[in-house]
Amino acid sequence: MFQVMNIGPEYVLSVYFVPFRSQSWDDLPYKPDSIEFGLRIWRDVLKRVAVHTIIAFGKEISPHMIDILDGARIEARHSAGWGTEIIDKYRFGPRGRLIVLSHLSHFKLFSKPQSEAAFRFALEQGGELASAQTAATYRREGIIRKLVSGNLKQIGSKSHLRFECDRDGMIITDYERAVYRALGEAEAKKMQSPS
Fold first, then answer.
1. Proportion of the chain in helix, strand, coil states, percent, rounded to 5
2. 47, 111, 158, 185: most buried, per Cβ within 10 A?
3. For the chain, what is the radius of gyration of the CA atoms?
4. Ramachandran assignment for 181, one of left (phi > 0), alpha (psi -120 to 50 degrees), beta (any other)
5. What is the pLDDT of residue 185?
6. Contacts of 90 (CB under 8 A, 6+ apart)
7. Is the predicted pLDDT of residue 134 greater than 50, yes or no?
């Protein structure tokens, strides 16, 4: 992840949200007290440190991070390139962003090219492509970049319905599945690229 972000570990503050061990989030002893303890620590830390990017691991802590980052609002959700897993991206303050990933102890996101490309996509500021190299990565890894907000074809046409299945940041196989659900197998096969 440090390589993807092009940053050294010496520039990263890495801390558990709740600094107590358990086999899983569900097995965390004294969960309400442990969460409250974590909330107090993080509120104090974020008062003292100017943070622009927070990456959280584990969807269970999302509501708590949003609580800490008063005013955080969802900006985007897109495929993590790993089954049905999703990357959530929030904005807070004037320039802050919170990126929530599935926990890396269960999902080795950085061992799959599609997932690494999806993470790069989540890192982008303002929805713009970071570089031509990143754009090439999207094309190579099959990540869709939606450049327009609407399809000018007649509403209800197959072209319009296919466009409605498309979401910025989704991978091509997810798009093909969405087209299959909406329009059937014949239309989905038209979307598949030759091997």
1. 45, 15, 40
2. 158
3. 19
4. alpha
5. 78
6. 66, 69, 72, 73, 74, 75, 97, 98, 99, 100
7. no
CA distance 20 to 7: 28
CA 66 to each of CA 45, 78, 88, 189: distance values in angstroms, whole numbers, following the listed order: 15, 18, 12, 41
Strand spans (E) along the chain: 53-57, 73-79, 86-92, 96-101
In this structure, what token pair is assigned to residue 191? Answer: 């979307």
DSSP bridge partners of 73: 91
Closest listed residue to residue 125, CA positions, set 95, 170, 92, 81: 95
Whether the per-residue pLDDT at 119 is higher than 70: the answer is yes
Question: What is the rounded average pLDDT of the residues 101-106?
Answer: 75
Secondary structure of residue 104 in the 3-state scheme: coil
The DSSP 8-state label assigned to residue 9 in this structure reads: G
pLDDT of residue 146: 57
* Cβ–Cβ under 8 Å, residues 188 and 173: no
Q: At what angle do helices 132-141 and 113-123 cross, to 10 degrees?
A: 140
Structure tokens at 8: 């050294």
Q: Give one word for 142, left, alpha or beta, with left for phi > 0 and alpha for psi -120 to 50.
A: left
